[in-house]
Design brief:
By secondary structure, the chain is mainly beta. The chain contains 3 helices and 32 strands.
């Protein structure tokens, strides 16, 4: 793994090189949102007296929904789902549906307009939507800025190819295409930066959420390479993270630490974004696997990994103690041996193959194979919240909440199970 560092010329913010050929965005419409951010953030609230399907045309027959997309919001307290007829927003703790929005495709006389990507902005009323499925509600090459208070789109970004992913911050919109990343100012949709990448069909891109820093990580221009853009310091760093292609990325909220996995799927590596230093390496297993999701805990003490093997792993991280300035006498229910776990062969490191000295997961949760799963850690600051909780979302509509014991390790205990695509939910 090698790193290089340089300071690129950043674009003139007054030049407005917006490639959008026909922007319909009207900046004054976002002013109430900006005022909301500077005062108190108003959560999306359902109207209990309204029709849960306000856009559904009477007389049309509903069929079983097709789930297209699932993603957590920025603090992992909510998640959004995109269906072949609209989208839904759910709360994680406690689990419940917050609101739903169904679209009516009258042109084809069927229920639905497919949503292939939904990106929340914490819990506010602004979302980014991309059409998807067999009958997309919006063109798949457009990002629609949706205001659910007004129940309409208040802006859009158009591109020459399909949108692969969208990330939101309070001040930025980041759009990933097959081989390019665009960074826009949220207020007026002015293009601030564009980045060339290697082929990126998954739209891999992660951004920090802390207000004081803005770190973006995406693919580089060669296999196994990631690019770290620190907009606060105006520095760009390239990290050759793996020999194989990058399959998954995760970034801490403050942008300090990055987790990467390759298409081989056996190792996960954690880097410091400031210097590009490899801080830790953990092993999921010995056989190849497709990594679906990586997630840091809020305290950066744990890392969760999901894959096509049907198992969610939780790894113990030592970067939080080394790099976050935790005092040596800090009391914890996790001793030093748990903080830096290794295999029982670690005393022979350098003698046996690297496999035997690898750091393995401290907890696991078995899931049905054949489905893609997203994973996140439950909130620990809320009163009544379960400590060491993990939330798992499946593309089969499954919602799991489980708990791991960092002392005894082993299998996690399932606390909750729900299915958010069962027929009665629609």
């Amino acid at each position: 793994m090698a790193t290089t560092s340089f300071s690129p010329p950043f674009p003139d913010p007054n030049s407005n090189p917006n490639p959008n050929p026909n922007p319909k965005f009207v900046s004054p419409m976002l002013q109430p949102y900006l005022d909301q951010l500077h005062s108190t953030t108003q959560d999306i609230q359902p109207n209990p007296t309204s029709d849960p399907n306000p856009n559904l045309t009477p007389g049309l027959t509903k069929s079983n929904p097709t789930l297209i997309h699932v993603s957590f919001n920025q603090d992992f307290g909510c998640f959004a789902t995109g269906y072949d007829r609209g989208f839904r927003i759910y709360n994680c703790d406690p689990f419940n549906e917050i609101f739903r929005r169904d679209f009516d495709n009258n042109n084809n006389n069927i229920v639905g307009g497919g949503i292939g990507y939904v990106e929340m902005l914490f819990r506010c009323n602004i979302l980014a939507l991309v059409g998807g499925g067999q009958n997309p509600q919006f063109p798949p090459n457009k990002v629609m800025i949706w205001d659910d208070h007004q129940s309409k789109c208040i802006g859009e970004l158009s591109f020459r190819s399909d949108v692969r992913s969208v990330k939101l911050r309070r001040d930025r919109i980041i759009v990933a295409l097959e081989q390019k990343i665009f960074v826009y100012n949220f207020v007026d949709l002015k293009l601030l930066h564009q980045i060339e990448t290697i082929a990126n069909p998954k739209g891999l891109c992660v951004v920090s959420q802390s207000g004081g820093t803005f770190v973006l990580v995406c693919l580089g221009l060669q296999k196994g390479q990631v690019r770290v853009e620190n907009y606060s310091t105006k520095k760009t760093k390239f990290i050759l993270a793996h020999d194989s292609r990058i399959a998954c990325l995760a970034l801490t909220q403050d942008g300090q630490f990055l987790a990467t996995a390759s298409t081989k799927g056996t190792l996960v590596r954690i880097y410091g974004t400031q210097e590009g230093t490899l801080l830790q390496e953990v092993r999921r297993g010995a056989d190849r696997a497709e990594i679906y999701c990586l997630a840091f805990s809020p305290t950066v003490q744990w890392l969760a990994v999901s894959s096509d093997k049907g198992t969610v792993h939780v790894f113990s991280l030592k970067i939080n103690l080394v790099n976050l300035g935790s005092p040596s006498n800090n009391t914890s229910d996790v001793d030093a041996s748990i903080t830096a776990p290794g295999s029982s062969f670690s005393f022979m490191k350098g003698v046996l193959p690297k496999y035997f000295s690898s750091e393995w997961s401290v907890a696991q949760f078995r899931l049905p194979e054949g489905f893609q799963y997203m994973v996140a850690f439950g909130p620990e600051k809320n009163e009544g919240s379960e400590k060491n909780a993990v939330v798992i979302l499946g593309m089969d509509g499954s919602f799991y909440k489980c708990k791991f014991d960092p002392i005894s390790r082993g299998e996690m205990i399932q606390l909750e199970y729900h299915n958010f695509v069962k027929p009665e939910a629609f």
